[in-house]
Amino acid sequence: MILEPGTAELHRCTAGADGRPVASELVARFDCCLPQIDDPVVEWHEGAYWMQIRPGMFARVDPATAKIREDPLCGKAPGELGALLFFSGGRTFAAVRQGTRHPGRHRRRFGSTCSERVVYSLRMW
């Protein structure tokens, strides 16, 4: 679970005979980065949760041990993780929202007025 103001909790659930959760045990609590506007990005890949836990870094959270392994995010780019995709062959794609350009300027786009343009850093490895 991702909670305000930037805390994540890893719970271990016990399922009943019908497969529905009947109990929950808190395994770990740790800090994470919450985007200012969008929902946080959390992906399940190779038996672990992947998410941004601090600026410039993303993490692999092992659900069995609650151990966290950190890796640089787009060359430690500052900003918010906007997308994280895992492809066959071990390739990974990340998009990091780094801010805006031209704040205060207005332009028409798709029938509405935009006051900024979002800038992303993209990386595939």
User: How are strands sequenced across the largest beta sheet?
Assistant: 4-5-6-7
- Percent strand equals over 45%
Radius of gyration: 18 Å
Write the H/E string, N to C: EEEEEEEEEEEE
Helix content: under 10%
Overall number of domains: 1
Structural class: mainly beta
Apparent shape:
globular
- Quickly count the helices: 0
Q: Could you name the ranges where pLDDT drops below 50 across 5 or more consecutive residues?
A: 102-116
| Strand elements, count | 12
- Major sheet, described briefly? 4 strands, antiparallel
Q: For the terminal residues, how far apart are their CA atoms? A: 28 Å
Average per-residue pLDDT, rounded, comes to 77
Helices and strands in order:
Blueprint: E1 2-3, E2 7-15, E3 21-31, E4 42-45, E5 48-54, E6 57-61, E7 68-72, E8 80-86, E9 92-101, E10 107-109, E11 112-114, E12 117-124
Antiparallel strand pairs: 1-2, 2-3, 4-5, 5-6, 6-7, 8-9, 9-12, 10-11
Would you give an account of this structure?
The chain has no helices and twelve strands. By secondary structure, the chain is mostly beta strands. It has one domain. The strands form four sheets. The protein has a four-stranded antiparallel beta sheet with strand order 4-5-6-7, with no helix packed on it. Residues 102-116 have low confidence and may be disordered.
Describe the structure using short key phrases.
single chain, 125 residues, four-stranded antiparallel β-sheet, 12 strands, globular
